[in-house]
Known about the structure:
Elements: H1 2-25, E1 27-35, E2 38-45, H2 46-51, E3 55-58, E4 69-72, H3 75-80, E5 89-94, E6 99-103, H4 105-109, E7 113-115, E8 117-118, E9 121-122, E10 132-134, H5 146-149, E11 156-161
Parallel strand pairs: 1-11
Antiparallel strand pairs: 1-2, 3-4, 4-8, 5-6, 5-11, 7-10, 8-9
Amino acid sequence: MKIRFGKVAVFFAVCLxxxxxxxxxxxxxxxxxxxxxAAEAKAFTKNxxxxxxxxxxxxxxxxxxxxxxxxxxxxxxxxxxxxxxxPATIRLxxxxxxxxxxxxxxALTYDxxxxxTQDSKALSRRSKGPIWVIYPMSAHEELQEPSYNARxxxxxxxxxxxx
Length: 163
């Protein structure tokens, strides 16, 4: 009897772990920051991000052909959800741990979006999604510099507010 109870307890523990993991599997983006010396984070699901105002950006870049139309929330709107004001810099982190630091001023000057669709199709992991940082490069000659291509982080999973 004790063995059966042990197996049942293990079964329920595995189910609980599975349910907890399922809830976390909905998270596609983490916004991390520090408030009064304490680390904080906000997690976002795809639905959370889709509830924000969506912006279309028709632009080319070094990784696409032509001028596709990308759609997603503005980076500055997502960062504003931290409720701590505008940071000087942020770090964009991809699923493979690639990261780049960018001045947040870029997000205030340009309509930088967290694209979740390209030409009305959801971005998958294979197509640089589910989130791809997109600058409106075609609309601004100054964004043609190679340093901006490095900021087109695909498979974005975290935004760290640094300063």
